[in-house]
Amino acid sequence: MGQMRCLVLGLVLGGCYTHPDGPDLDELVDPVDCTGITFNDASDAEFPIEGLDGDPTMTADEQELFYVVNHATAAGSYDWDVHRSVRMGNQYVDMGAQSFNTPGVNDVDGAITADGRLFVFVSAQPGNLNHLYYSTRRERLSDDWSPVQILGGLENEHINTFAMAPDASWIYFGDDTDSLRRASRLPGDEIRFGREPTDHGYVKGYPTMSADELELYITNNGIFRQTRTSTSQTFPLPSGASLFNGETDPYLLANNKVLITVGGGIRVHHRSCPEAPGTRL
């Protein structure tokens, strides 16, 4: 049995979320300095996922994988739901659609916190097209999700895509102008965010960002990596050749050393980064 360790993010009061056979989450999210260090184009591993349609996100211990599956039967139709798979040996086993999915509504582009306790996603709920919603759970893999709620503070934003901090302290999102906007978590127990006025650059599909907010990956006819040296700067426009041989939908894990993409199945890319001083998540 692995160590019964957990990462407490302070998003939900009471208890802590644990993966019974997972590795030490504290070690997985130690700060690292990946400045100038890129991922190899060739993936280090690939996991076939039946029905995978995109939007992968993964917990910090790599024990849980979430992604979107299209359940529509007619050609050209879409009925997207979020599915969850659990790591068992050298494969991920699909556990089915999650209870927070709304029947007949497209639920897409999700992000899970590092500890697996908060899931945020874009949903086309009736009367609230393309807003952010969230669901929480408590301690173990077997715990069910809470009823879905709209993400507070961003109710008036039309959000096409977003990236979230490993501890959900901030969200970057793309609006109808493809501008990259930032919202930070507001103080208090309630999960609410406040939009900031600064434009942080351009964003298209499926962004993912490093915990230090200096490295951004987006999908725009391929995956592109954009960097900046300060959060006060805007990200440059994507340029040059795309990365990862035509793969899509990147997701950067909390440790900043693992990037997953979609290319047939889930592809896993690694890089080696030295430790950096800082406070653990």
Kindly report how far apart the N and C termini lie.
Answer: 24 Å
- Within CATH, the superfamily carries the name Glycosyl hydrolase domain, family 43
Q: What is the top-level CATH class?
A: Mainly Beta
Q: What percentage of the residues does DSSP assign to strands (E)?
A: 35-45%
- In terms of quaternary structure, what is this? single chain
Helices and strands: which structural class? mainly beta
Which sequence of strands runs across the widest sheet? 1-19-18-17
CATH architecture classification: 5 Propeller
The main pleated sheet reads as: 4 strands, antiparallel
Care to count the β-strands? 19
How confident overall, as mean pLDDT? 83
Shape: globular
Number of helices: 1
Low-pLDDT segments, ≥5 res? 1-25
Please explain how this structure is put together.
The protein has one helix spanning 25-28; strands spanning 45-47, 52-58, 64-70, 80-88, 91-97, 107-112, 118-125, 128-136, 149-150, 161-164, 170-174, 179-185, 193-202, 205-209, 215-219, 223-227, 248-252, 258-263, 265-270. With 281 residues, the chain is mainly beta. It has one domain (25-270): Tachylectin-2, Chain A, CATH 2.115.10.20. The chain is globular. The two termini are 24 Å apart.
Q: How do you describe this structure in short?
A:
It is built from 1 helix and 19 strands. It is an all-beta fold.
